[in-house]
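Fig. S4 source data, part A: sequence.
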Amino acid sequence: MKIDRRNDLSLRLLEVFGTLMLHQTTVAAAEELGISQPSVSVAIKQLEGQVGFTLFEREKKRLIPTDDARILFQEIAPLFDQLRSVEARVRDLRGGAAGIIRIMATPPLGHSVAPQALSAFMAARPGVTIQYDVRRMENVVDAVAVGAADIGLCLGLEAHPGLDVQVLRNDRMVALMPADHPLARLSVVTPGDLAEHRLVGLDRASRLGLVVQTAFERARAPYRPQVEVRYCHTAAVLTQACRGVTVVDRYTASFLPHMTLASRPFDPAISIPACLVSRKGRQLSRLATEFLAHFGDALESGATG
């Protein structure tokens, strides 16, 4: 039996439909696409003929997506992310002086090292557009996997079955406390030292929070954080405000403007990798490679600053 592999759906019509779903009006969609308003309406009618169902109902001057339209949009949204990835790659291949790079990072790197790298990267590339976001680990991994981000920058991820993970640098976690805190007199801080002080802990459901808790348990020291937070930067802010102590990554500790906190090595040593996450089997774009050179420099300065 011969299989018909013809695709009856027009990619251009799907693009018009997706843009209209995002902007909700034919005027805004036309401006985004660089076509006329009647062309948008004609394209939607043509797509309705191809799919065999109504996509929009008109309510006075507003277009209301049907339930079928919302389902279709959910299906094709990843396709547009991939198309934007292809467009960015084409612009990159033209020379690298202009184009788009999409970067997503987890908070410890996204609020410390990555902005420093972005500053240096942008200084020499005024024509490059950067789409940058800071999200939780699972969001970064998902975005890279579907092509919504070109690269992900993660702390604490050593491997992933569906992605390429490159460890860029390993650094140990540190204890933070106010500069005049009694523990600041120590050269190294242990779980036993922290047990008698107000502890600001990381969420135990997170990777970093779990390894800190495990270090306490192995040292047979009680782990009783008075406050638990999701992000390392939040832990540092509360440590200063509440005159407590916390254990965070080295990069967060190195990029804390306007804070008078002392940083001491935490023992037992907890080594945390800073990683690059990319799509498996895909060569990095020229822009991504150039950004990573700046990111590597920022990692070094963050680890020694």
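Fig. S4 source data, part B ends here. The chain has three domains: 11-77, 96-168+274-304, 174-269.
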